[in-house]
Amino acid sequence: MPQAGPARRPLRADARRNREMIIAAAEDLFLRDGANASLEEIARRASVGSATLHRHFPTRKNLLETVYFDHVKELCDAAESLAAGHDPAEALIAWLRLIGARAAVNNGLAAAMAADMDGPTPGSPSLQSCRAMVSAAGSPLLDRAIDSGAVRPDVTIHDLLGLVNALALADGRHDRTSGEENRLLTLALTGIINRPAS
């Protein structure tokens, strides 16, 4: 059992720093190589040994979940920040673009987690909780945009998240620039804009 006391505090700080470095390296490599990125390369990128990586994350699923949940939290925080500082329609579209930028890697992480026989399935409480968090974060942005008259009132947050994810899943090209991605999403989102009846 670890000993309590001041002598352990620097180790806890080192362990916390190592964990943060592992997560940052995993995020980069999952983005580049997908959910099956080499754990050994992640450890090298983080400047830690494999034993240190496995001490923090005993299984690949543990690491996948941590990166995935961190992405979800960032998207939720971004929704709140955008709502505070932008026009309602601009805030909603900017947030959906962030979702789109994360969608390909997040879908890959979620699929890998679901494929793990000991891990969550697509309908598991773990993944359902993340989806609920994202929906709850985006709903106020959509409500503001509808209330402002900028977005059609029949649009739901599930419509929008489904649209963004469908675009990410349908587009398997890796040579597309971020500008192209934003253009495709912008073209798709023109369908939600409220237009006066002619």
| Name given to the CATH homologous superfamily of the largest domain | Tetracycline Repressor, domain 2
The major pleated sheet works out as:
none
Mean pLDDT: 80
Low-confidence stretches: 1-11, 173-179
- Class based on secondary structure composition and strand pairing: mainly alpha
Order of helices and strands: HHHHHHHH
Task: Estimate what percentage of residues fall within beta strands.
Answer: under 5%
CATH architecture of the largest domain: Orthogonal Bundle
Distance between the termini: 74 Å
Shape: elongated
What is the number of beta strands? 0
Description of the structure:
This protein is mostly helical. It folds into 2 domains: 1-58, Homeodomain-like (Arc Repressor Mutant, subunit A); 60-192, Tetracycline Repressor, domain 2 (Orthogonal Bundle), CATH 1.10.357.10. It is 72% helix and 0% strand. It has 8 helices and no strands. The longest helix is centred in the middle third of the chain and has 28 residues, at 88-115. It is elongated. 26% of the residues are buried. The model is unreliable at 1-11 and 173-179 (pLDDT under 50).
